[in-house]
Structure formats: structure tokens, C-alpha cells
Amino acid sequence: MDEHKSYFKLGLFVVSAVVISAAVLFILGGRSLFTPKFTFETYFNESVAGMDVGAAVKFRGVPLGRVTEITSSFVQYETDLPFDKRRNYIVVRCEVSAAMSVDDIKREFKSMIGHGMRVQTQMEGITGQLSIGLDILDAAANPPLPFAWKPKYDYVPSAPSMTGQIIASAQQFIVSLNDAQIQKLSKDLDNLVQDVDKKVKEFQVADLSDEGKNALKDARSMIARVNRILDDPAIKLTLNNVAKSTDRLRAIMESGDIDKIVKRIDDLAARLDGLVADNQYDVGVMVQDLRAMSENLRSMSEQIKNYPAGAILGGPPAKVQLPGKSP
After folding, report:
1. CA 255, 258, 261 angle in degrees (round to 5)?
2. CA–CA separation, 245 vs 248, rounded Å?
3. CA distance 290 to 284
4. What is the DSSP letter of 207?
5. 48-84 pLDDT, tens digit each
6. Helix (H, G, I), strand (E, B) or coil at 41
7. Apex CA 292: angle with CA 289 and CA 298, to 5°?
8. Please, are residues 266 and 127 in contact by the beta-carbon 8 Å criterion?
9. Per the confidence metrics, is the pTM higher than 0.90?
10. Of 102, 122, 120, nearest to 156 (Cα)?
11. How many Cβ atoms from other residues are within 10 Å of residue 93's Cβ?
12. Maximum distance among all Cα pairs of the chain, rounded to whole angstroms
């Protein structure tokens, strides 16, 4: 009988632990499964090198979602067209999460597109990774790209990025130069170099002021002290160790491991950014739930410590009546 009770208690404990674990997992991330998600797609007629699936989608810096797919119009819509008839756009599909229904999100996007909302690629920091940025621009100056197919998801027009515009302007300026302008520019640069060289030759040490000469003496004295310090064997040993460390770092960088680590960190940061943005409200609720759960677990552990059997099956055990004692 006691053995059956022990098995029952053990089984009940295992079931309780599984239920509590499932509840914690639901609090941590399960609620996001019920958050409405809206998918849209946009087209770029320029390179999106540096953008990966999972990249952030932001509206004027406010996180909204993430990039879910990067493909081409040829694969999605133009497989039956000859090469010279294809648009060959880059198709980027994004997923947006919000505390409203999908129909409400669609209406908001449609209204904002009418007021000039456009999609642009944005560079994140100095790593070169691209993200998707939404902003209100001049609709007349940024018309939608022409296409003849029916988009699979709601379509949001794109606009050239600022980086792409700067590069295009520089290329256009270089192409617009004719031979005469190039020769004139080359001649002006040559004259500038000659003038600088002439001024350097006209500069004589004898014309220096006394303060300048004293400064040169101080500089020579300082260089002499530096030379004495560098002649110290300890300094030479330190420099040799630094050189060896530099060689090791160069070998590590040339192997490509650093680039892989940086890319993984960037991907992880983008995913964490999206996760925190999607669950910012849930995190606060989760902390409150965890505090309440901690108090309940502490109370239950004290009860189990004092009355192991009674904590699960009932109250404290009945008092034992010793022989010869009246009840």
C-alpha cells in the first residue's frame, strides 16, 4: 500500500513539474503565436547585398517586424517570360506584428501608402548589414516600380536608398565629364601639386624664429630619450611579443573566423531586437507572473518540507494513540 502511494506521489510530482514548465514556456514565447501578423512585399531595382532573412523592419526607427524572404521577380513571377522582357527586381517580403487585427493593419498601410509611405534599405552601423526602413516620402518623386503581375502579398512601393543615390550621383557626374573637362581637371591638379612643391622649397630653416629653433632642439632631445628607452631590452622583448600577437591576430582574421563571428553576432542581435520588440509588453506580464509563481513555489516547498504527504494528499497525519493512554 505504501509503495503504491509513493508511486502516486512521484507521478503527481512529475506531472506538476511538466505543467509548470509548459506554463513558463508559454509565458516566455507562446503568446507571440497569437499576435496578429501582416505580410507585405516590396520590389527593389537595386542591389540589396548585406540584407539577410531576419533583418529588422522599422518605421522611422521603431521596430515593426522582420524580413522573412528575399528572392527575385524572375523566380516568383517571370519564369515564363524571355530574358529581355523580365524586370529582374529583388522581391523582399516582410512580416509585421501589431496589437491590432490584420484587417486594421492593412487599412493603415493602405492609407499611409496613399500619403507617400515608401520602403528603403538602411545600413545598420558600420557592419554593412542592411535593414528595411519605412518612411513618409514625396510620392510624386518616388513612384512605384512598374510591373504586370499580381503580387502574392500586399504591395508597398519602394524608394532608392540614400546610399544608392549618392553612388549613382557620383557615377553620373563621372560619366558626364567630357575629355576637355577631364584634361582641365588633371591640369588643375598638376598646378596645385607644383604650387605646393614650390612653397615647400621656399621654406628655409634660417627664417625660423627663435621659438621654432628651440622647439626643434627640444624635439631632438625628446627623440634621443625615446631612442634610449627603445634600446632597453625589456622594451625590445615587449615589442617582439606584440609582433607575435599581431601575427596571430592577422592569421585569425585571414582565416575568416572573425567575419563569421561578427556575422553571427549581427544575425543574433537582429533576431533579439525583433524578439524583444514583438514581446515587449509580454515581458512585463511575464515578470509579474514569474514573481507570483515564485511565491507559490516557495509556499509549496515550505508545506512539502513540513508535511510531505499532507502537502499532496491532505492535511497533517492523525495522532498515534499509545497503549495505556486515554484518548
Report:
1. 125
2. 5
3. 10
4. G
5. 888 999 999 999 889 989 999 999 999 999 999 998 8
6. strand
7. 135
8. yes
9. no
10. 120
11. 18
12. 127
